[in-house]
Structures are given as structure tokens and as C-alpha cells.
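Session log. Operator J.P. requested a structure for one protein chain; no other inputs attached. Running the standard single-chain path with C-alpha cell output.
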Amino acid sequence: MRKRSMFFLTEAPIPVVEGYKVSSKSKMMQSKGEAALVPKAMTEKIKKKESSEM
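Structure written below.
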């Protein structure tokens, strides 16, 4: 699984990679209970982006 995600990151264009990093960061923050620090509009945008990537 990890190799696959690394492959995805290397194959993806830079903006997608940046979006992936931001998404992982926001998920980590949510798990720490700091989701309030991430603007809702931003997380919604990322979710839409991820669903369109699939």
C-alpha cells in the first residue's frame, strides 16, 4: 500500500502532490482534535479533488 501511494505521488503533477500533503496534514489535525484550525471550505475542496482523482 505504501509503495503504491509513493508511486502515485511520483506520477502525479505537482499541484496534486501538494493537495495530497495538505490533505494528509488536515487528517492528522482532525485526529488530534484540531480540525477547527483547518478552514471548512479548504477541506471540502480537497475532498472534492480526491473524489475526482479516483
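Operator note: Residues 2-53 form one domain.
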